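User: Here's a structure from my thesis project, written as structure tokens. My advisor, Dr. K., wants to see whether a designed sequence matches the one we expressed. Can you design one independently, without my sequence as a hint?
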């Protein structure tokens, strides 16, 4: 491509529009709005009545996320979403066209059964549907050229913008008419202040540190072995990318003349995919000063396991689920021509040619936020289209998940898919699947059981890794850290297994300067326990609705003074008169509870002792059996333990061992525990029991707990093995003399052994 052609490709400023024809600026172009001003933007962007939904994750309540931004109607319950009249009209128009050409319900089931490899909507249907939508928009005052399709991307951005504008979407002009719109091409943000989109994204406040990578020290980098060894295959892929307008091949001399110091030729990595093609990774970090000089200011938010659970709780009787995948997602965002040189690469270091990426590129720091921003508008458009139908659409990067309740909402999935095709969304149709059970981004959703967990593939990977690693007895610590990341993902969906990660994190952190290590007995025990639970019904967990306990179940307390340790508790649910309530009070000694004295004086273990009192209460005051899961409530005057039970994680010993037993007991009964903090004066009865003041209770209602006789589900094993493990951890920390980071050897685990 010549310099003249590149110059010609540079966009001219587009003119914005409003209902009155006056120019309006894009929210993408807004370079302000911190604090209160951002809050004002949010309130203008509300997509429903009342506060949006909340989801719960690791003991914390957080705003519900569907992947389409703060202003998404999908963050509200369907009945609370604002109705957009033009959305309803477009839905009716699309439904009419669909019914004319095909059986929508049959098509949906065919997609769910993976019956379609290519586009399932006939070209005549898509054309007619697009014209129907255009006609409705024009009747409502559309001003843009709805036939315009900007080059180097597939989307009908003018059509999308007009639809969003007429639905009063706060970010409409970002797509076509605004400055630096997706139609004109977005900036990578190298050495430029990136814009904020407060109506869609939270403000990003933390960034990765790029030590020594902020300058372009070597702008012609060699490729990594995976790419260098497969240069011909990657070159062939680039030729196909060029046909799609995603890349330009240019002589090095000419590229240097056009871009000067902004020509940065990055190293390429390549990961072979199942179809023998390659996932090419553009290293925008090392040696070329690209990623280190990009400061993204919008924080991407993707749905989590907590959000999935919230959807299933809102939809009391979910009917159908369908997943879909967008083809080449990051490669669909048009980049400003003046930034193409910053995304250069070579397939052969001896070649006199470079390849310039003209679209978003995997490995460049701003690619993900640009794609998320672009597709968020399409996702919101779907919500405006479907109105108050009981339908949720969750998006994790390029993976879509529809969950519906009722026939009308289920049938609406096909209309929504047709609408997205009308907007130009390219789907990988052969990846669609659905029904009442489905795997999605590593999670597993079962509508019949109303449960969420991890996919069978990921569970199998964990179990196989445990088998192999335990058999070897030795692990590479860099691999172990990567596996902890995978386990953390899994335990976000299976929260009661989270406490078992605490000792693993403690051991891994203590050996940060070690390459290989022999597995301690405690680590083996924990890994085997996790493997056992995944193989025996704990790959998923029911999500509700949780049956709330009618009242507080129990209150507990602990006392530690010198050699005197006493725990006590009573069953509040038995009635208001303590004389009729079950209760316990027991002493712990160095002989039956040596773990309570590991820190020296017993009071130093008070958090562990308070939690142990809660555990004993759970064992003795076992709640009545209910069908399904039950949320039980209990009281303590230890505020720290309320947070501990909520997040189910501790790396401290013996606290982590007791927490593991609490979690195991809850799992065994299919219960959730909500521990409430009480001021000491409100916990006086339990406090009296720890002081062995029993006059308020009946001896006939006393229950006994023998520490020396209680093996527990995992408690005694973890107390015994844990003392040895944590002594090794202490010694490892004491031995640290080097401050160097853990050595990485060979390819990372994600390359050698991907897990899904």
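Assistant: Designed independently from the structure alone:
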């Amino acid at each position: 491509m010549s310099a003249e052609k590149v110059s010609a490709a540079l966009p001219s400023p587009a003119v914005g529009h409003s209902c009155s024809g006056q120019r309006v600026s894009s929210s993408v172009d807004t370079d302000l709005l911190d604090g209160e001003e951002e809050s004002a933007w949010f309130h203008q962007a509300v997509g429903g009545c009342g506060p949006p939904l909340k989801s719960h994750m690791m003991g914390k309540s957080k705003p519900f996320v569907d992947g389409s931004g703060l202003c998404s109607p999908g963050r509200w319950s369907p009945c609370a979403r604002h109705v957009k009249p033009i959305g309803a009209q477009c839905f009716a128009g699309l439904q009419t066209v669909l019914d004319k050409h095909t059986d929508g319900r049959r098509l949906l089931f065919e997609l769910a059964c993976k019956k379609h490899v290519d586009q399932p909507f006939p070209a005549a249907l898509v054309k007619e549907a697009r014209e129907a939508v255009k006609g409705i928009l024009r009747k409502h005052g559309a001003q843009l050229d709805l036939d315009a399709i900007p080059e180097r991307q597939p989307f009908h951005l003018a059509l999308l913008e007009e639809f969003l504008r007429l639905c009063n979407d706060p970010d409409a002009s970002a797509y076509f008419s605004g400055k630096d719109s997706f139609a004109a091409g977005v900036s990578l943000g190298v050495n430029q202040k990136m814009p904020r989109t407060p109506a869609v994204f939270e403000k990003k406040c933390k960034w990765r540190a790029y030590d020594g990578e902020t300058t372009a020290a070597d702008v012609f980098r060699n490729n990594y072995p995976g790419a260098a060894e497969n240069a011909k295959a990657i070159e062939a892929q680039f030729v196909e990318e060029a046909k799609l307008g995603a890349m330009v091949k240019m002589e090095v001399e000419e590229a240097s003349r056009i871009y000067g110091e902004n020509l940065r030729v990055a190293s390429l990595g390549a990961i072979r995919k199942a179809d023998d093609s390659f996932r090419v990774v553009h290293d925008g970090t090392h040696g070329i000063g690209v990623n280190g000089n990009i400061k993204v200011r919008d924080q991407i938010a993707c749905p989590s396991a907590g959000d999935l659970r919230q959807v299933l709780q809102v939809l009391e009787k979910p009917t159908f689920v369908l997943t879909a995948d967008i083809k080449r997602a990051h490669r669909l965002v048009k980049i400003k021509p003046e930034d193409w040189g910053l995304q250069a690469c070579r397939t052969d270091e001896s070649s006199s040619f470079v390849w310039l990426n003209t679209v978003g590129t995997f490995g460049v720091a701003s690619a993900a936020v640009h794609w998320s921003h672009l597709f968020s508008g399409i996702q919101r458009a779907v919500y405006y289209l479907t109105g108050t139908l009981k339908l949720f659409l969750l998006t994790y990067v390029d993976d879509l998940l529809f969950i519906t309740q009722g026939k009308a909402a289920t049938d609406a999935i096909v209309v929504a898919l047709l609408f997205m095709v009308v907007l130009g969304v390219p789907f990988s149709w052969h990846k669609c699947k659905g029904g009442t059970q489905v795997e999605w981004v590593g999670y597993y959703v079962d509508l019949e059981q109303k449960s969420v967990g991890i996919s069978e593939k990921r569970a199998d990977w964990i179990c196989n890794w445990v088998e192999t690693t335990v058999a070897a007895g030795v692990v590479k610590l860099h691999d172990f850290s990567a596996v902890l990341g995978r386990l953390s993902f899994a335990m976000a969906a299976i929260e009661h297994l989270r406490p078992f990660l605490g000792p693993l994190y403690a051991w891994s952190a203590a050996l940060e300067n070690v390459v290989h290590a022999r597995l301690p007995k405690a680590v083996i025990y924990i890994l085997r326990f996790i493997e056992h639970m995944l193989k025996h019904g704990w790959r998923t967990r029911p999500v509700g609705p949780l049956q709330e306990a009618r009242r507080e179940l129990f209150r507990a307390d602990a006392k530690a003074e010198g050699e005197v340790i006493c725990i006590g508790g009573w069953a509040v649910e038995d009635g208001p008169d303590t004389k009729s309530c079950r209760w316990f009070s027991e002493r712990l000694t160095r002989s039956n509870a040596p773990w309570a004295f590991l820190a020296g004086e017993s009071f130093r273990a008070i958090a562990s002792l308070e939690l142990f009192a809660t555990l004993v209460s759970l064992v003795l005051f076992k709640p009545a059996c209910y069908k399904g899961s039950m949320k039980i409530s209990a009281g303590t005057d230890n505020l720290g333990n309320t947070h501990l039970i909520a997040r189910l994680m501790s790396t401290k010993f013996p606290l982590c061992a007791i927490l593991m037993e609490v979690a195991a007991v809850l799992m065994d009964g299919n219960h959730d525990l909500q521990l409430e903090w009480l001021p000491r004066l409100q916990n006086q009865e339990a406090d009296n029991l720890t002081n062995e003041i029993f006059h308020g209770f009946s001896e006939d209602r006393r229950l006994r707990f023998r520490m020396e006789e209680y093996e527990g589900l995992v408690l005694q094993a973890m107390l015994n093995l844990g003392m040895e493990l944590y002594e090794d951890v202490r010694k490892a920390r004491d031995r640290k003399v080097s401050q160097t980071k853990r050595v990485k050897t060979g390819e990372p685990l994600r390359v050698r052994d991907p897990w899904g």
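When you compare it with your expressed construct, this may help: The first helix runs from residue 3 to 9.
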